[in-house]
């Protein structure tokens, strides 16, 4: 099939009601029969799941599973920022005058990504990660830092795919898709955790109850099917681990870099 045809199919399937229908089935008891096939298709390590595969009530219940305790240790050095998710790095670098440059060939403004929040000014020359979660990955999102939740916002939008095809061929999907934005204040500075919805994602959910203060590695939210997290660091706040690059895979709790002394 040609690229224009794929783009047309993606446009047609990016409507929120399609994701709502898909999500309703994934939450139904009828969907539980697909769990073994789903796990086999995507190579998911069912032995890592908190519960036995037969104990999950639906495909969505399995997809949002927790892992067995101890499988994702949090980096012990508190001066380090940790990965909030299991993911592949699909974007990494300095923010230049409010612009994220060349994420799969496309540029994004911080203003668009943060829905024109007044807090945009804090990130004009900061640092960013784009972290892509495939269907294989663990889909709970944890706090990358210890700090207080300053503000959160739910931005309505499309549900375009955020995989290789979506990021490269659809127009600026990270700033057009549905997003859940959380601003967290660390004593060194502010971090924005932008959770981006995707194709066939019925919703992004905060954990309940959501605490006012988060510890590094504490649960923050979860995706109902695969998506992306964008991490934004305030200006002059963060230095990345030098070996991380495009295509690097990280696990939740793994070291991403260090806070800069001020």
From TrEMBL:
InterPro entries from the UniProt entry: PS_Dcarbxylase, PSD-B
UniProt cofactor(s): pyruvate
Enzyme class: lyase
Keyword Lipid biosynthesis among record annotations: yes
Pathway note: Lipid metabolism; Phospholipid metabolism; phosphatidylethanolamine biosynthesis
Key word Lipid biosynthesis present: yes
Molecular functions per Gene Ontology: phosphatidylserine decarboxylase activity
Keywords on record: Decarboxylase, Lipid biosynthesis, Lipid metabolism, Lyase, Phospholipid biosynthesis, Phospholipid metabolism, Pyruvate, Zymogen
EC number of the protein: 4.1.1.65
NCBIfam families: PS_decarb
Entry protein name: phosphatidylserine decarboxylase
Originating species: Paenibacillus violae
């Amino acid at each position: 099939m040609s690229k224009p045809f794929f783009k047309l199919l993606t446009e047609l399937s990016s409507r929120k009601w399609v994701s709502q229908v898909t999500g309703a089935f994934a939450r139904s008891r009828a969907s539980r029969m697909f769990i073994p096939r789903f796990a086999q298709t995507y190579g998911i390590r069912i032995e890592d799941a908190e519960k036995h595969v037969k104990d999950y009530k639906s495909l969505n219940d399995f997809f949002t599973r927790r892992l067995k305790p101890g499988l994702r240790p949090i980096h012990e050095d508190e001066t380090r920022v940790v990965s909030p998710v299991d993911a592949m790095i699909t974007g990494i670098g300095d923010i230049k005058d409010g612009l994220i440059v060349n994420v799969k060939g496309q540029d994004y403004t911080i203003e668009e990504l943060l829905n024109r929040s007044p807090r945009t000014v804090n990130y004009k020359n900061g640092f960013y990660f784009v972290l892509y979660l495939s269907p294989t990955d663990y889909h709970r999102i944890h706090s990358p830092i210890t700090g207080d939740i300053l503000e959160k916002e739910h931005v309505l939008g499309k549900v375009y795919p955020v995989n290789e095809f979506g990021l490269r061929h659809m127009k600026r999907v990270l700033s057009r898709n549905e997003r859940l934005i959380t601003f967290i204040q660390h004593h060194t500075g502010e971090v924005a955790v932008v959770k981006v919805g995707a194709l066939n994602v019925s919703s992004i959910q905060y954990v309940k109850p959501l605490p006012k203060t988060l510890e590094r590695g504490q649960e923050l939210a979860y995706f109902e099917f695969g998506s992306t997290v964008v991490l934004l660091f305030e200006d002059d706040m963060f230095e990345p681990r030098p070996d991380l690059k495009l295509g690097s895979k990280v696990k939740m709790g793994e070291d991403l870099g260090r806070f800069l002394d001020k």
